[in-house]
Specification:
heterodimer; A: alpha+beta; B: 411 residues; alpha/beta; seven-stranded mixed beta sheet; globular
Chain lengths: 154, 411
């Protein structure tokens, strides 16, 4: 089995089998699509934002175990964060994936289990797909003229 | 080791140094030759000897070294020309097959396509035979139309015929699909294209390495392929063109080598094939490609094809035993090449490729640069195992065992 144990550990496979946040929101504040041109993975991500806080996260799409587990873990890591905190968490995860920061469990929750993906450069893009969608979604939300204290639906 | 009637696989494997290595402690089982082939010692040695013994720029120097370099470079072209039965002046050396197709799209397409003209491709094309046409269509106002693929993975000839009406100017079709393995009836496509008043380009990247191809006999106007899938190095591809069609075309890229004269008032072009070869060419790569063509000719493309039909039949049978598997493309090994795409329920192709790598098995996972075909198949990605002359039936059995191991992981 060798070095693949950390890539396919039980927590990751559990999120892959039982994806948290899979589905759609009734009234998303913002929705974005991201895809990985390398492997064809696709994700549709929706955020429910109220008072500048990420209240709900939902996703649909298709992808490998790493990309699907990662977005599942992300829904738990981002829920309840302010938009700035959420962007900071996304950036932290990105740096972890590039081996530039040690994973902080307080910020990432189960997604700390993905730290080992950093050793598989081809798979880093899989792990980042959902998180880049979240960053895009928050920036899109703000770009649509939503202040952080604004609970209007975009 | 299994030896088909056609090929002594053990002897062939011994010619490829890389096939002696291991990966993660397992012997290398290389089943990704549709992406790139491995290289025999004959190719490596020819390129090494070129750099060690005769390196100089070609078609320029008057000294002995330059003459030898030019001879070896042009001998590479001759070996490729012989392999596909084409006259040497119609054999243009490019960077890869994509550049060969871009050459036609730009040098012919930009000057000949008009608004409303039609370029016909197929849904099973590699992006390299789609995107150049879309770019040039965007410039000229022409449209790109896609002939359908049947549910069985074959080119829908009725759909193709339906598009060959009105101002159709070019039909660009792959000889063998890199995803489905399907071998298309390109001689018939060329005839239909000509009947409709169009030219025909064939992308032979997945055909020339694996079967006898006599380009003039196919009747197409252009035939593109790449060196690195046929035992040669990366960095070199080939466009075979009908000489009279090439004569009537303006150059693609401008620069050194491709001119007859340059004045401040303008320039005139070199003879074929050099008119289409701007700048210092891939010299060592041409030497390597010549050695590869020589190696293929010596083994014999009839024998290679017979061996791969045997391997593909074994692969289709062996994969059919895997629980829940979906295998794409024609079922008849005689009707297809050795690129076999498949998917498993509950394991994404990317995970399949990663997990079987620990058993030393190399397969491709993804969209295979054929996203329109992926949409037709209704999948985002597939896994693909592809064979070549150095593969044995045992390699395929190793793949099937590794798939079982991957499966156990996801249970």
């Amino acid at each position: 089995m060798g070095g693949l144990d950390d890539l396919y550990q039980e927590l990751i496979l559990d999120h892959y089998r039982r994806k948290r946040g899979e589905g759609s929101l009734e009234h998303p504040s913002v929705a974005v699509d991201q895809h990985n041109p390398l492997c064809g993975d696709e994700i549709h991500l929706e955020l429910g934002i109220e008072d500048g806080v990420v209240r709900d996260v939902a996703h649909t799409g298709q992808g490998c175990s790493i990309s699907q587990a990662s977005v599942s873990m992300m829904t738990e890591a981002l829920r309840g964060r302010t938009l700035d905190e959420a962007l900071g968490t996304v950036e932290h995860f990105r740096l972890v994936m590039h081996g530039d920061e040690a994973a902080d469990e307080d910020r990432l929750g189960d997604a700390v289990a993905l730290e080992g993906v950093a050793r598989y450069p081809v798979r880093v893009k899989c792990a980042l797909l959902g998180w880049m969608a979240a960053k895009d979604a928050i920036q899109t939300y703000r770009g649509n003229g939503n202040g952080d204290g604004d609970d209007e639906e975009a | 080791m299994h030896t088909s009637a056609a090929i002594d696989v053990a002897a062939i494997k011994a010619d490829f140094p890389i096939l002696g290595r291991s990966v993660h402690g397992a012997p290398l089982t290389y089943l990704d030759s549709a992406a790139t082939s491995q290289k025999p010692a004959a190719v490596l040695d020819a390129m090494d000897a070129y750099y060690r013994e005769t390196n100089a720029n070609v078609h320029r120097g008057v000294y002995e070294l330059a003459a030898e370099a030019t001879d070896r470079f042009e001998a590479g072209r001759d070996a490729v020309a012989r392999l596909v039965g084409a006259p040497r002046e119609g054999v243009i050396l490019t960077k890869n097959a994509s550049e060969a197709i871009n050459l036609v799209a730009w040098a012919w397409g930009v000057r000949n396509l008009r608004p409303g003209d039609r370029v016909v491709v197929t849904e099973m094309e590699h992006h390299s035979n789609i995107v150049p046409w879309q770019i040039v269509a965007g410039i000229t106002g022409a449209e790109v139309a896609f002939a359908s693929v049947t549910p069985g993975g074959e080119l829908d000839m009725d759909s193709l015929r339906g598009l060959l009406t009105g101002p159709v100017r070019m039909v660009a079709v792959g000889h063998a699909s890199n995803v489905l393995g399907t071998i298309n009836p390109v001689a018939e496509v060329a005839r239909l294209a000509h009947d409709a008043g169009a030219l025909c380009l064939v992308d032979g990247s997945q055909a020339v390495p694996h079967m006898p191809v006599d380009v003039p006999a196919l009747g197409c106007d252009f035939y593109a392929f790449t060196g690195h899938k046929m035992l040669g190095p990366t960095g070199i591809g080939v466009l075979v063109g009908k000489v009279d069609v090439l004569e009537g075309m303006e150059p693609f890229l401008g620069g050194g080598e491709m001119i007859s004269d340059v004045t401040t008032a303008g320039s005139s072009w070199a003879q074929l094939p050099w008119k289409f070869e701007a700048g210092t060419p891939p010299i060592a790569e041409a030497v390597g490609l010549g050695a590869a063509a020589g190696y293929l000719a010596e083994v014999g493309l009839d024998a290679i094809r017979a061996h791969e039909v045997d391997l593909t039949g074994h692969m289709l049978d062996a994969l059919a035993e895997v629980d829940g598997i979906t295998v794409y493309g024609p079922r008849d090994p005689e009707a297809r090449g050795g690129a076999v795409s498949f998917s498993l329920p509950d394991i994404h192709p990317h995970d399949i490729a990663q997990l079987i790598d620990r058993d030393g098995v190399c397969v491709r996972a993804g969209h295979h640069c054929a996203k329109p075909l992926m949409r037709v198949l209704g999948v985002g990605a597939t896994a693909r195992a592809s064979t070549y002359l150095y593969n044995s039936r045992e390699d395929i059995d190793t793949l099937v065992r590794a798939l079982g191991n991957a499966r156990a992981m996801f249970k």
